[in-house]
Amino acid sequence: MANDKPNQPQDESRRRFLKYSGTALGGVVLGGVIGGLVGANVKQTDKDETAEPGKSGTAAENKDYNQALMFFSQDQFTTAEAAAERIFPADDSGPGAKELGVAFFMDHQMVSQYGYNARDYMLPPYYKAEETQGYQLIFKRNELILLGLEAMNQYSNTKYQKPFAEIAPEEQDAVLTAFEKNETGIKDFPATNFFAMFLNLTMEGAYADPLYGGNRNMAGWKMRNFPGNQMSYTDYIEKEEFVKLEPLSLHDHLELG
Amino acid sequence: MATKLPKVPVVIVGMGWVGGIIAAELTKAGISVVGLERGKSRDTQDYYHVHDELRYAARYDLMQDLSKETVSFRNTMKMRALPMRTYGSFLLGEGLGGAGVHWNGQYYRFLPYDFEIHSKTVERYGKSIIPENVTIRDWGITYEQLEPYFVKYEQMAGISGEKELPSNIGQMSTPFATAAMKKSPAMKLFEEASKKLGYSPYVIPSANLTEPYKNPDGIERAPCQYCGYCERFGCEYGAKADPVVTVLPVAKQSGKLDLRTHANVTRIIHDGKKATGVTYVHTPSGEEFTQPADVVIMAGYLFTNVRLLLLSKLGKPYDPQTDTGSVGRNYAYQINGASTSAFYEDREFNLAMGAGALGSSIDDFNGDNFDHNGLKFLHGANIRFTQTGLRPIQYQPVPAGTPKWGAEFKKATIHNANRVLSVTGQGASMPNRYHYLDLDPEYKDAFGQPLIRMTFDFEDYDRELVKFIAGKTKGIADEMKATKTEVHDSIKQYNIVPYQSTHNTGGTIMGSDPKTSVVNNYLQMWDADNVFICGASNFPHNSGYNPTATVGALAYRTAEGVQKFLEKGGSLV
């Protein structure tokens, strides 16, 4: 894995970035430095090609002690992972939600300000809203997701006599579709709200910077040739041809003490 | 009991573009200024780890904390307004630099037509062309009068642009400060297609610096790196002009600016004719202060400007039933939704690369640059292709009819990630008698004060505009050598959920009639001559353009007005 290489000179790139930015504020042009920096980073990552993004994951040699659950129970995690995989499945183009760590991303987000709606207006009163007025539930996102995962299992158990994670992929798709279209028949449950949030979280988990627990090894970015966090494209912006760059993450810019 | 502070010549409420510009101009002239900003301080170093789409774009790190204050919304007066509980349609800036930190840097002077929209429309077509309830009016200032102030902003910010501009937009007495942005291959496709159709494309004028630049105040900045993280992000290079890297350092260096962050203004104190200062809460301590001043300048985002006037009972609140009063009148927005996507099977573009203001546009269908006879709308749209840096969480392009999730979705979104170019229209928004801002009767902020309430909807004339402009975007896209194109030509009701634009305007509009406008053409309040209110809240309508150029020009105009007022007092008009 790219971030297992202890000798990668990330500190160096960070120092050069600081130097560049500091100088930039002083008004001196350093286009050459930035070009050199991008080039150097590309070379570094080229050396790490043996990492093979698709092959990492849960294998013992890749055991990651920084990865465990902050919020979900084991069952909730398994359900979320199975559902996310149907939304963003592994295929020829690359890994799916499971291998990307999307369910870990969701788990971690649920204890963040986002999961607790900490920066949302949550004061009463609550009224039924028109569609144009947006989310008006007293429920927090991390309450909604638990209800939703439970409802998915309830629906699956009723219809297929098995929990969601154990039914066939086509059956899982049928369950998800019922939630998407609010056709679950489960009373007083905002299935459409839940599904929209879950879909959103799945895409975020596939494509957010790996620091949040998903997009493992930047494989989400690599699939669509997204270069991640680069310092400069000045040398490429006018180019006619498509430029493929090995992606860089925020970790690549962190100065490690 | 509020602690009363020593009186100062000028207090400014809000330290974004407007507050920053006015603070710089006044302090350079030797006038002492207190600047009150309710958010935190910021500088370029805060953005070294800014390339984080989740934190900044999806979780709105730089935006106002809605748990403390939001806006309530309804489409019509018949509905109950409900609070915007989470972000969607527009994003409210907070902290030093305000929305000036997270903008894209697209810089358009409004058209000469905009400032005299009523006279020019009536002159060409007669009154009958104005749709029912549309309340367009002249701004009380002309393009020619405002021109020198545009120049000031351009030189300060180092605005880049082409030497020669099309003849159908406002002409410039002084060329742009720096050379135009680089042209990407996709921009060239847009420009070639537009020219083939007889239109006049030009590179979008930009506040993302294109070369090292030293402005007239001696502030030096380095150029944009086309890194693709502008809108919703701060610039780690200081290349994107924002108040923190341009005007605020000048004000600070003067030694005349007393800048106070975490200072949330709750009232303008006045006797009905003059203001005597403001009251604010220092939010970390909860302590309340009164800041007396000779001049009070409101420089917040439009919701703050309008709300503080209404909470302070200063000026006459607008009443749509009787069509009287002025504060809250003519709320307008941006009519987006007209666009055409061009799909390329045979090539990919470097769409992750870009800059907030990288793009090309035409104004052949903006303002009154085309004949409106037989059309059921006024004004038009700037039609553009922009390459702002597409990021994967918020951009998953698929052809129409693709499922929203699952195997087929994934395949399509990955295949198309770098294969779609969008030609879009940024439509003008006409004011309407029933679109306005007032205080919400039910919902309160964290201090127990009423929220601002927005009543706004899209009207038939907006839908007509979108349909017409969409046809033009398709015409261009069809000439861009794509495999196929898909047009989007309809909008329904205004919906506060999907992001559309942070170009909200109106509420403290400028004009020459004290009955229907809040400020005169020096942005001086009719009802209290020592109160100046400046921002997009002054716009009587919104043009088919991004607003910052015109906001910036008005801020320079205000600064001049305040100096004149301090010298001789009284009404400036």
UniProtKB/TrEMBL annotation, chain A:
Looking up InterPro entries in the UniProt record yields:
Gluconate_2DH_su3, TAT_signal, TAT_signal_bac_arc
Where are the bilayer-spanning segments? 20-40
Matching entries from PROSITE patterns are given as:
TAT
The organism's place on the tree of life at top rank: Bacteria
The UniProt keywords, alphabetically, are: Membrane, Transmembrane, Transmembrane helix
| Identification of the protein by name | Oxidoreductase
UniProtKB/TrEMBL annotation, chain B:
Which family does the entry's similarity section mention?
Belongs to the GMC oxidoreductase family.
The reply on keyword Transcription regulation is: no
InterPro entries found in the cross-reference section: FAD/NAD-bd_sf, GMC_OxRdtase_N, GMC_OxRtase_C
Annotated Glucose-methanol-choline oxidoreductase N-terminal domain ranges read: 142-332
UniProt KW rRNA-binding keyword: no
**Glucose-methanol-choline oxidoreductase C-terminal domain sequence ranges:** 438-555
User: Keywords for this entry?
Assistant: FAD, Flavoprotein, Oxidoreductase
For this entry, the protein name equals: GMC family oxidoreductase
Identify one Pfam family in the record: GMC_oxred_C
